[in-house]
Amino acid sequence: MKKYSIFILALGVLSSCKKSFLDKEPHSFTSAVFWQTADQAESALAGAYVPLNSEEALGGEEWCGMESFSDIGYMNDRGYPDFIAMSEFRANQNTEGDLSINSYTEYYQVIKRATDVVTNVPNITMDESQKKRILGEANFLLGWSYFTEVERYGGVPIYNPADPQSPLVRATEADTWAKIEQVLKDATTQLSWDHEEGRPGLGAAWGLLAKVYAYQQKWTDAKAAAETVISSGKHSLYPVFRDLFTFDNVTASENLWVLGARQGQYPITPTLYLPNDVWGGTHDEVVGNGWRLVSATENFYDSYDPQDERKLATVAKKDVDVVTYNGSTDVLRAPNNLSPVVCVKFQRAFQDPYTDIFPGLSIAAIRYADVLLLDAEAIMNLGGGGPQNRTVPVSAAAAPFNLVRQRAGLPAIAAPTFNDLMYERKAELAFEGGDRHFDLVRWGLAAEVYNNLPAEGTYKPKRTFDPQKHRLLPYPQSQIDISNHTITQNPGYN
User: Fold this and answer.
1) Which of 60, 83, 333, 418 could staple 390 via S-S, CB 3.0–4.6 A?
2) What is the pLDDT of residues 321-341, one digit of tens each?
3) Which pLDDT does position 288 carry in this prediction?
4) Which numeric CATH code is attached to 6-191+474-482?
């Protein structure tokens, strides 16, 4: 696996990706003949997407592994001791040499390449509508990548091609959030509601902006951004929750942005969650050894409302629940899984007989359900509810809240509380990039939830979350060292 520093990344050479608009030839940003034509602009933009498909970005381990920080999942593959130490709040520094550092650098590749697009494409003589779209996509990718970094690490270096020292200095957390807001606002003036599959449109830009505002507790702005998506009429919930995560529904209007997968290549999210022995030898399995990187806790399995249709669409219990895999339907065995519970949210890709453990199932990075719940959350906070007033009913939040809840087969709640919202976000967004952990942290409730849970087997020990320290992950030590300590460590870590 690749190991980079941000200095190497600053040299940035594009790699190719063999699918639709990503099928572009490599180009060097330093070439004297580059940044001259529309085709070069498209190639540069395609290059900014490429790192997102990698193992540690949206296409793989770290995106899934972030769920182990929450109460609903854990690292079932114990071969990542440093990452596990961070997820169990035992680490005093971040010397993790795989998931964490590779994710950090993959997103900085996106930041470097997208910034170069935003800097250079305005000077190219080309069709103005095409130029506008390219700039909008690049600004969205900047917003997404900086958001991914800031929710993990706080303030991060803001890349400026005119300042070679910019990768060496961490911006403040406030300045990083301001940068995210700026590029996403720019994207909302450049993108369209209608867009090619795999590219973000206005729904993605406004949806991510709603989330960015929610993380900063800017509730009026969060509500306005979310309701821009809702009132557009361009997005809606797919009728059946469990059928959303299939090949046929990648283009469903619920998916605001989906990073396209290719069979035989990354992303490999379904394989990462797949047990390495589904049937325990009771069926003829030609293939089927999944990665079993991340699995679910029994506590999460038991926390579902019995009538919630999302339960068996998300998790399955060994020797209890029936699953269909590789053409066979039977009770799940998974004898090598450490907990009794497996995440099955993305396993429909392996329901029929198959020959490729890289199935090519695209995973939505932003969904309409998330936007509806962010709208409900903003309304609750503006109406006297919120993390510190969790039992206060807020009837004004019922409309967006109940769209998500009723899709799951649960009765509507006339005046939902913040406790109700907490349940909906946990049940709806489980195993989609770690939202559960980041929600609890931004609500100030991580210590209360995590510290009151008993150990679950040896795979999910009793944990102690210190909000002053563990609100952020420890900053990658390699980047601190490379910068000669002009990049500083987060509070509480060595």
Assistant:
1) 418
2) 999 998 899 999 999 999 999
3) 56
4) 1.25.40.390
Quote the tokens at residue 387.
């993390």
Helix (H, G, I), strand (E, B) or coil at 315: strand
The per-residue DSSP string of 71-119 comes to SSEEESS---HHHHHHHTT--SSB---SHHHHHHHHHHHHHHHHHHHHH
> What's the pTM value of the predicted model, to 2 decimals?
0.93
Q: How far apart are CA 155 and CA 169, in angstroms?
A: 10
Specify whether the CB–CB gap between 270 and 361 falls below 8 A. yes
Q: Which residues of 301-336 are buried (b: 16+ CB within 10 A; e: fewer)?
A: beebeeebbbbbbbbbbbeebebebbebeeebbbee
AA letter at 246: T
CA distance 225 to 163: 33
DSSP assignment of 157-218 equals ----TT-TTGGGSPPPHHHHHHHHHHHHHHHHTT--SS--TTS--HHHHHHHHHHHHHHTT-
Instruction: Give residue for tokens 């325990």.
Output: 280
Q: SS3 helix, strand, coil % of the chain, rounded to 5?
A: 45, 10, 45
Question: What is the pLDDT, as a whole number, of residue 14?
Answer: 30
Pick the closest to residue 291 from 482, 140, 79 (CA basis): 79
Residues (pLDDT < 50) of the chain are: 1-30
Q: In what order do the strands lie in the sheet with 73-75?
A: 73-75, 294-296, 341-343, 315-317
Those residues with Cβ within 8 angstroms of residue 42's Cβ, 6 or more apart along the chain or in another chain: 21, 24, 134
